[in-house]
Amino acid sequence: MKKGTDKTDLFPGIIRGDGRGNVVEFKCSVTLATRLIRGTSANAVTTSLRIDWAEQSPPDGNYHLKTRGRIFKIRREGGQWQVLTL
């Protein structure tokens, strides 16, 4: 991977949470972005997850994202999903 170049992978996911008193569960697609940052003494890798598409637009709040056998806490605020830095 070249310096400053992103590698992206797209995965299916499930979002589950409390949509204002009702438990909701729906499909989504998740992008895993990995960036190699070369340094003078060492290299660093940054990785992030973001929801690119969701079957529903639930209210703002806390949810759980399940993808690739892992579960992450994720928040929706101002109608937007947060980007998770791993």
**In one word, what is the shape?**
elongated
Question: Structural class of the secondary structure composition?
Answer: mainly beta
How confident overall, as mean pLDDT? 89
Outline the biggest β-sheet: 7 strands, antiparallel
Question: Strand order across the biggest sheet?
Answer: 6-5-4-1-2-3-7
Strand content: over 45%
Query: What number of structural domains do the residues give?
Result: 1
* Helix and strand run: EEEEEEE
Count of DSSP strands: 7
In whole angstroms, the N-to-C terminal distance is: 19 Å
Determine Rg (CA atoms, Å): 15 Å
* Helical run tally: 0
Poorly predicted ranges (pLDDT <50, ≥5 residues)?
none
The percent of residues in helical segments reads: under 10%
Sum up the structure in keywords.
86 residues; 7-stranded antiparallel sheet; 72% strand
Structure, explained:
By secondary structure, the protein is an all-beta fold. The protein has one domain (6-76). The protein is built from no helices and 7 strands. A 7-stranded antiparallel sheet has the order 6-5-4-1-2-3-7, with no helix packed on it. The protein is elongated. The mean pLDDT is 89.
SSE layout:
Blueprint lengths: L5 E14 L2 E17 L4 E12 L6 E7 L2 E8 L2 E2 L2 E2 L1
Antiparallel strand pairs: 1-2, 1-4, 2-3, 3-7, 4-5, 5-6
Structure summary:
The protein has 86 residues and is an all-beta fold. The protein is built from no helices and seven strands.
